[in-house]
Batch of 3 targets.
Target 1
Amino acid sequence: MSACIYEELCRIAGERFVQCGEPMSRHTTFRVGGPAEYFVAPDRESLPGVTAFCKTNDIPCLIIGNGSNLLCGDGGVEGVVVEVGKRMSDIQINGTRVTAEAGALLSAIAAKAAAAGLTGFEFAAGIPGSIGGAAVMNAGAYGGEMRDVLTEAEVLTEDGEICTFPADDLQLSYRHSVIPEKQYIVLRLSLELQRGVQEDIYAYMAELKEKRVSKQPLEYPSAGSTFKRPEGYFAGKLIEDAGLKGFSRGGAQVSEKHSGFVINTGHATAEDIRMLMAHVQQTVREKYGVTLEPEVKFIGSF
């Protein structure tokens, strides 16, 4: 059956875009993770065929973007991993409206918007993810969120239909949307920005970049902020106050630069990271009675 699966995926998406046993460490910003049984990078035309094939044959199918918010287990991922990436990354600007395919990187969209003199998306310039993933979790930084600019989403439904919804229907809130609950796959998003002074836009982007470089451990693989912000607290401060700044397990470490980040110091396994996160959660809960909820999504076998 495995040969048949591979052959059918190649027929649908093209042999160049199908891999067997592809290391997920190549597709997550943590740079850890075992092999995907099948790894497919479809374009917009072949994506529905890939997902329909998986559904018809009861093959597990996992959709990922840039892998910037994922921790993949060392045991890898059973079934098919579908990467919505470079082959679905077109960006178009018409007036103050920006339309981007789900695989477009936030940094690329911010750069194109700035070049067109559009403001409102500067907050996303340094987030290392794709816009599809950003919509799924209502990504945000420095006071801005996707819900501030998102107007419309085109998605592939669980039944294989392509539908367009206004942003309000996605119920965007802090690090949440109904996209995963309804098992939508984001295809394209529309943003509404404002006209701005290009010099000011670039200056603000540079200011935010400097903040990131000075305060975040960008020199190490990570998934950004590891935990969601608990109501009334800041995760990083709780972790630091608990004495965990710099605490490590194997190759995973609570960043000495920013305690809200768990980093891969170079030789971490997914299990190192998972166990360190669990230790942080337990310690903070015992000391402060606060339960830290992971912002990172766990996939695959641990």
Note: The first helix runs from residue 2 to 13.
Target 2
Amino acid sequence: MADKKVEAITSMDEDFAQWYTDVVVKADLTGYTSVKGFMVLKPAGYAIWELIQSQLDARFKETGVENVYLPMLIPEGLLQKEKDHVEGFAPEVAWVTHGGLNELQEKLCVRPTSETLFCDFYQKDITSYRDLPKVYNQWCSVVRWEKETRPFLRSREFLWQEGHTAHATAEEAEERTIQMLNVYADFCEQVLAIPVVKGQKTEKEKFAGAVATYTIEALMHDGKALQSGTSHNFGDGFAKAFGVQYADKDNQLKYVHQTSWGVTTRLIGAIIMVHGDDNGLKLPPMVAPTQVMIVPIQQKKEGVLDKAEELRERLSKVARVKVDATDKSPGFKFAECEMRGIPLRVEIGPRDIENNQCVLVRRDTGEKISVSLDELEAKVSELLETIQKDMLETARAHRDSHTYEARNWDEFVDTVENRPGFIKAMWCGDTECEENIKAQTGATTRCMPFEQEELSGVCVCCGKPAKKMVYFGRAY
């Protein structure tokens, strides 16, 4: 491709999986380690996570969430208490069998998730209705021994947050479950510029031990779906397994109703695959560690670097900004800015200084704009806002144009094979049909959206009366 700036990146259309790996490596987001499936989050990658974490944490706290930290090891006996839960995680658990040189009396599991730990904690911490609700969250890492791994999307250890709440009533628990799903959906759209579909997982796809699992589903550039966040209503099942009870106002012992919800570093993978192009990353300004890069042109000429530094100081009041004063060529610096996804580039050279102007270049569209230095701060602020909004609209247009309807089996199969994306189709509610669809096409139920449509009266697979409209798709 003649217009491809960085030859080291495989074209998306040629091999999307290789393109993804190339971008992760060339943008210096992660590094490999001596243990397969465990990755190093390099500064460029971790800085994105820090911005996700700080902005999401602020949104959590606005809804009354408090942060805690629980241990990373779970005794085997504790894990065994909730049968469905342990069966769901058994194949992925890593075990600690020795403490120093001594074999442990009881094996300890490295947390794959912390439901059992929170239940054990709540059982001791909750005694009365006055102790409720407990609306806790922890930021931590978990370990799941995945067979196939890929940076951000599926690694054996990953960073996440897991919220775990306890409530007096089923209604309060359901309200919190939906509330947190909405927090995730708003965050993805407003901060990550990723549009999502909100809905409920089917019985087959729900979390092990949950009464109901709700999800936000995003569509990647290659037409595959990515589960981007989940919120679970546990009802009182875990409470009964762990004896988490409280004395109500009438002095009767009752079981609490619990929820759990989480997002992970997988969101960084979503940002890459929703927004990136053949020149590398495209970061939405709100999660770009560097929002503006100043590139001095002919920087050895007197006054150029000083002016670049002056602009950096001015712009630092409105954006996260850096100057690239390295001895690389301007062309190389431009390509590097694009590779790293920096939303806005400022070019300043002797002629620009003479004319009291600079050139702003948008990463998302490539558009170049000459701006008077007198109005630089205002213009940069305005452009960053515009880029953020435009990236969401571009992603939404892509998703909508790759969302299809299938009213019968032939249409469904043809769409899965020839038009990658979301497929909306009617379903009878039978798990057997769900399994048949997956076995024959590789497409899975992504969610039963809250916004239901009646596409036809019959199931796309078996032809029996339909109960729900479902989003299907091949997924990561």
Note: The mean pLDDT is 96.
Target 3
Amino acid sequence: MFTNKEYCEDEELYEFLQSNHKSHYLQSSEWAQVKINWKHERIIIRNDGKIVGTMSVLLKKVPILHSYMMYAPRGFVCNPDDKETLKKLTEGVKQIAKKYNAFIFRMDPDISDDDYSFKETMKALGYKSGGSRKTIQPKFVYRLDIKGKTEEELLKSFKSKTRYNINLAMRKNVKIKCGTKKDIAVFYKILSCTAKRDHFCLRNIAYYERILDSMGEEHAKLFIVECENEPVAAAMAVFYGNKAWYLYGGSTDKYRNYMPTYLLQWEMIKWARSKQCDIYDFGGISGYQNENHPMYGVYRFKSGFKGDIISFTDEFYMVFKPWTNAVWNIIFKCYSRLLEIKK
């Protein structure tokens, strides 16, 4: 039912992940290589010899509890209406849990929050959902449908202010180049500047290098923006299946009046279109519901590209060892509280 050795070189699996409309870069074997501190298992379900469903499961050991937690980022890759495949995927999850003595499995599938039929199916399979637990991946994202649209049609669909800012950047001779691994230092310096300004945590530079190495040129791209020959903005995007994602990015305070980030997003959208993607994902918009939220400005910027707000279903989880899970929840709450105090 599941394998954990040969899937990386399995051409059939790769083709399935590229063609299924529920495919996600977080469910790829390439992304599992980025998560070096996690073990990895791959569940593969077949019907009449053909792959009909798969799930990448990450496992992290909690030494103090002598047990593992399991996590499937963005859930499974299969037809969400295929109840039999979902059942077999769940059986695979239980087998992995037994193998590693895991105490919990969590998943946050790429499923709309209004898909009530799917929620009922998951409940019938023994999953619980929601509660006070925060999702690991963004609950709300902003996506632009680019399927079958020309560059002219897309540009015309943007808000007038966004179009103006894109054209302004071009008039100011803002340049965007495709970066390589050699440009990671530049990318990281700009990202660090943004993290300091906007108060968010930053991973070490090796993490971003691993993304480029593991995803490869086929699935990851670095963009560097220059104004007056000076790097002022940068972004990393990934492509997988029928979607492209704006993954990480930032800008300096210098030359902000040149509107470099608008042109940067437009170039990434055009790149996604060149990859024949159906969807360009701008990433999370946690503060979109409240104009006073510190992240509302991020939403206002993204909304200028006239995409759609996507609300994902709540996280689903399955507890295998209730007592161990209860202890972990206490430890995690204490740790989270300490981080808040430190901030």
Note: The first strand starts at residue 2 and ends at 3.
